[in-house]
Amino acid sequence: MDGAWVYLVTGGCGFVGERIVELLSRQDYIKEVRVFDSVAREEVEKFSTAATRVTVTRGDVGEPGALLAALRGVHVVLHTAALLDYRDTVPFGAMRAVNVGGTENVLRACCVLSIPHLLYTSSIAAVGPNTSCEPLLRGNEDTQYSGEVELPYGKTKAMAEKMVLEANGKKLSNGGTLRTCILRPNTIYGEKATFLQELYLLARARDGVLNYLEPEDTERNLTYVGNVAWMHVLAARQLQLQPDLLAGQVYYCYDDTPSTKAVLVRYQLLSSADPSLRLGSHIPYWKMWLMIQLHRLIRVILPPSWRPQPFLSVALLNTIVTSFSFQTDKASRHFGYKPLFTWQESRLRTARWLKAAAGSLGPPQLHEKKN
Question: Helices 194-205 and 343-357 meet at what angle, rounded to 10?
Fold first, then answer.
């Protein structure tokens, strides 16, 4: 059936989803890539090729009927759609409805329509840091780490992960079996990365000085968006070809981006776009914690129409200052993953985008539908 497969990407108009769609459209074994997204940017259809058609449907994963209609005739689902919020701008119930309820709807639709393969995009936030801010240094997929997850977003991704793993092996309506696996990205950078936009705007507003919150020895992984997308493409294909190996597995996303000091990697990315930027000083934890509490008090005092949006939460602050990194080659061993882009290529591509966008960058969004 090579050349006749139909893939569907939920959230395919998002930051990561769009890159996944672009790479899927170049695979000669795929006939059609469907995009199901509440944003539904039709320009994603430009990725259509002579062999592979890309179609976009506007819809929400919270709407079971719309999902069923979009998924009919699909062979593989890549479920990347999620509501990403790190700053308490979205009620937890609303985030859970999308990230957990939406995942439940996708799984149910796969069973009803007998779609045998589902790849779920999770996050390292589903693992930690925990509320005790215990560090994890260069762990892997088998490393034991316990405790309550700190970030509300991470809580919803952990709930969804549990559902996806429990769904692996479920019977489909045609008597077949559902096979699922999970990818866990960490911080993803690259073209259209909103956090880089924000950091760049902040540095420019401070005369080119990039201050930072984490201690200088804080270790965290960053991965280029093109490599995260490429891992999705390979994992989805191998889930079809080697379901007994990949089904029920979890894989961290990685590439050769340095992971020793997170602040230095961010500085390299931004200074590649603007060499005039300078690395500033460390902002003490206590000072930022007090600023967050003061901001909360102001929001309580001011009338609703004047209340500023939260700029940072304590949960996010705790996550930023806690080392949480992994080191693994599991994706390479299981399905032959190798980064499509080197660190130098990733950095230069990101820098070119930032340079081109510098004149038109506006205030970043505090939450987004992704991936």
Answer: 60
Per-residue pLDDT tens for 202-220? Answer: 888 889 999 999 988 899 9
The mean pLDDT value of the chain amounts to: 91
| Among 304, 311, 256, residue whose Cα is nearest residue 288 | 311
Looking at residue 76, its pLDDT comes to: 98
**Which sign does the torsion angle of CA 37, 43, 47, 49 carry?**
positive
Give exposure, 60-78, as e/b (b: 16+ Cβ within 10 Å): bbbebebbeebbeebbbbb
Architecture of domain 5-193+221-258+324-346+362-370: 3-Layer(aba) Sandwich (3.40)
Q: Show me where the domains of the chain are located.
A: 5-193+221-258+324-346+362-370
Q: Does residue 368 surpass a pLDDT of 50?
A: no
Look up residue 257 and give its amino acid.
Answer: T
pLDDT of residue 298: 85
What are the two backbone dihedrals, phi and then psi, of residue 290, each rounded to the nearest 5 degrees?
A: -65, -40
Distance CA 336, CA 333 (A): 6
- Candidates 113, 101, 110, 99; CA nearest to 63 is 101
Give the span between the Cα atoms of 176 and 319, in whole angstroms.
41
Per DSSP, the three-state class of 110 is: helix
Q: Which residues are catalytic?
A: 153
Question: How far apart are alpha carbons 343 and 352 in whole angstroms?
Answer: 14
Contact 285, 181 (CB under 8 A): no
Answer with the residue of higher pLDDT: 105 or 301: 105
Show the tokens assigned to 21. 């769609």
CB proximity list for 222: less than 8 A, separation 6 or greater: 186, 187, 188, 189, 257, 259, 262, 265, 266
How many whole angstroms separate alpha carbon 201 and alpha carbon 49?
Answer: 37
**What count of other Cβ atoms lies within 10 Å of the Cβ of residue 310?**
17
Task: Compare 216 and 135 and report the one with higher pLDDT.
Answer: 135
Per-residue pLDDT band for 364 (boundaries 50, 70, 90) equals very low
User: What distance in Å separates the CA atoms of residue 230 and residue 338, rounded to the nearest whole number?
Assistant: 9
CA 218 to chain CA centroid, nearest Å: 21
Other Cβ atoms less than 10 A from the Cβ of 360: the count is 6
For the whole model, what pTM was predicted? Answer: 0.93
